[in-house]
Design a protein that fits this description.
Blueprint: H1 4-11, H2 15-22, H3 30-43, H4 49-56, E1 61-66, H5 72-87, E2 91-96, H6 101-114, E3 118-121, E4 137-140, E5 149-153, H7 155-168, E6 174-180, H8 189-201, E7 206-211, H9 217-226, E8 235-238, H10 241-253, E9 263-268, E10 281-284, H11 287-302, E11 311-314, E12 317-319
Parallel strand pairs: 1-2, 1-3, 3-4, 4-5, 5-11, 6-7, 6-8, 8-9, 9-10
Antiparallel strand pairs: 10-12
Helix pairs in contact: 1-2, 1-3, 5-11, 7-8, 9-10
């Protein structure tokens, strides 16, 4: 791997000159700048961002804290966040916590010590007392008492839409399947919207939840089907698409067919490849818009601007599939 000294030797200049070119210093002759750039390209030299940021006391790195990079929704979100950061010349540090509170706290401490420019984070753990606002932060789905700006989809309306669409598909006794998180997040509004819409229409409905995290989906759905509450359920609104897919798979083992016996709607809209069947009916989150808005709001915070809202909710839409 080439060093900054290798670049300097090839260009016939000092290390300081190379550094000034890398940092776009104005006091570099055009011909010298071109020689250095040519040497950088030839040697495929990659500047040490950490060292540069330390010397300049200004970071161009933004951290993204995720519960799991394996989840398709989080992966898609990360893609668009990185793309928006790249447009503005910023780099992304990905922190994959696995949903573990200790690991999230470790990352927050590390990021504060290394002075990243900002943080975009998703956490469903009770870590609020340890989250510092010394660095600009944008939260996705989660509210903190410290008035950290939250970007989310319109979960409440999504729940209401899901109930209406199940009824349109012919469901008479719909059920909500979800989990109970230890701290409040916007995702809980999916259930509230579902319940409020059912009550407003006078529809009999049930709610089935177990404590989060759901480590054993097989056990979760076995418990659901063993419970008397599942009887006569002919419509299911699952809190996520993955929950919906797990329900459909388990229901087959009990001789329950989708959508013949039960109509199913998920939430997220992560299934884009039409090669997979059945194509899930879902409430589609505006993932790209959420990602790009999070970055733009973070930049405004980094500039010292006070944002006019604490929560930015982006509309969702129903996407019909083969399960309703």
């Amino acid at each position: 791997m080439s060093s900054i000294k290798d670049v300097a030797d090839l260009a016939g200049v000092g290390v300081g000159t190379v550094s000034r070119v890398i940092n776009n210093h104005s006091k570099v002759k055009p011909e010298t700048r071109e020689k250095v750039k040519a040497a950088i390209q030839k040697l495929k030299y990659i500047p040490n961002e950490v060292a540069r940021n330390f010397k300049m006391q200004k970071s161009t790195m933004v951290a993204l804290l995720l519960p799991s990079i394996w989840h398709p929704f989080f992966s898609e979100l990360a893609y668009y966040i990185e793309d928006e950061l790249d447009r503005e010349g910023f780099k992304l540090i990905l922190c994959n916590s696995g949903g573990k509170p200790d690991k999230e706290l470790y990352y927050f401490d590390m990021l504060n010590q290394n002075k990243v420019a900002g943080i975009i984070g998703i956490s469903y753990n009770d870590i609020e007392e340890s989250v510092s606002t010394d660095i600009p932060i944008i939260s996705i789905d989660r509210h903190f008492a410290k008035k950290i700006t939250c970007v989310t989809s319109d979960n409440y309306t999504g729940g209401r839409i899901a109930l209406r669409e199940l009824l349109k598909a012919g469901a008479k006794k719909p059920a909500f399947l979800g989990s109970i998180t230890p701290v409040y997040s916007e995702t809980m509004l999916r259930k509230e919207g579902f319940i409020d819409e059912a009550r407003s229409l006078g529809i009999e409905h049930i709610v089935y939840e177990e404590p989060d995290p759901v480590l054993d989906h097989k056990k979760y759905f076995e418990n659901f089907f063993k419970a008397k509450v599942h009887r006569d359920v002919d419509g299911v609104f699952a809190i996520t698409d993955l929950f919906a897919a797990k329900y459909i798979d388990t229901a087959k083992q009990y001789g329950i067919r989708t959508p013949d016996d039960v109509k199913v709607i998920g939430y997220d809209g992560i299934q884009d490849n039409k090669l997979f069947h059945p194509i899930l009916s879902t409430i589609r989150q505006p993932v790209e818009e959420m990602a790009r808005m999070s970055v733009k709001l973070l930049f405004r915070k980094m500039e010292g601007e006070t944002l006019e809202q604490e929560t930015y909710r982006i509309p969702v839409e129903y996407r019909a599939g083969e399960t309703t």
